[in-house]
Specification:
11 helices; four-stranded antiparallel β-sheet; Rossmann fold
Length: about 270
């Protein structure tokens, strides 16, 4: 991990549902994200990883609330009274890539129109050349065709690249990617992960990568936090956690990945 202070620092974060906040779904989570780092958060469905992300971004569903903890971005608390700082930062300094491009993109608007509207919402203007450059950055060669296309005219991998371009348009320091490859086949999945890693290496973006696939974490992430039942049960350098897991739940994830992936690939990609 970098010696620099954390870019994003989560301490003692808890989230609960219910009018009396009695059903705790995230429990006392601590996370750090260093500049230029890829942090993996891994766990099965229902482990609390997506709820943790939504709490960090202030996107909790109705009936859920943060009951303890702090989230600091560049030293500023994002969970303070009114959360005005979070509203200013979200979508600009911290951007999110969601799991399903089909649900995130407006089916009635072209990719280019959505990109322009997003910039307009931030009080900016995005020129055609700038949009073409964003397309190039995410590996789209025929930029004009894709910018003029509606979401249903794009493949899953191409739509995911468009979502990444939308995230990059604000020049964020942190990208939060929630299961960004789960709906894609293995070949396209690898292309998207290589693209995200290239953006980290070449543009200095920091990435929080949420997944159920511990083998992907081993290949692409410097550090990993393993979540189960709303709590972080183990975290550390990816190769250490995957090759020498201390917690029984982590060992189960690693063993389950071996038949599918031919064993852990921790450290292979960086």
């Amino acid at each position: 991990m970098s010696a620099d202070p954390p870019l994003l620092e989560v301490r003692d974060l808890s989230v609960a549902f219910g009018a009396d906040r009695s059903r705790e779904v995230v429990s006392h989570v601590d996370l750090d994200l260093a500049p230029g780092e890829i942090l993996g958060i891994v766990g099965a469905s229902g482990s609390g990883k997506t709820t943790t992300l939504r709490a960090i971004l202030g996107h909790l569903p109705r009936g859920a609330a943060v009951t303890s903890g702090s989230v600091r971005f560049e030293g500023t608390d994002l969970l303070g009274p009114g959360s005005a700082e979070l509203r200013r930062i979200r979508g600009r300094r911290i951007a999110m890539i969601v799991q399903n491009p089909a649900s995130a993109l407006n089916p009635l608007r072209t990719a280019g129109d959505q990109m322009r509207r997003l910039a307009r919402d931030r009080g900016e203007r995005l020129e055609r050349d700038a949009m073409r450059e964003l397309m190039r950055m995410v590996g789209i060669a025929d930029a004009d065709r894709v910018l003029a296309a509606y979401p249903h005219e794009l493949s899953g991998g191409m739509a995911q690249r468009v979502l990444i371009a939308l995230a990059l348009a604000a020049q964020p320091r942190v990208i939060v990617a929630d299961e960004p490859t789960s709906a894609l086949d293995v070949t396209i999945q690898a292309q998207i992960m290589e693209l995200l890693r290239t953006l980290v290496d070449e543009r200095g973006v920091s990435l929080v990568f949420v997944t159920h696939d511990i083998a992907l974490v081993g290949e692409y992430c410097e550090r990993v936090a393993v979540m189960n039942r709303g709590a972080v049960v183990e975290q550390g350098a990816s190769d250490e956690v995957i090759y020498a897991p201390r917690h029984e739940y982590t060992r189960g994830l690693v063993e389950a990945a071996r038949p599918l992936r031919g064993g852990s690939r921790a450290g292979a990609g960086r």
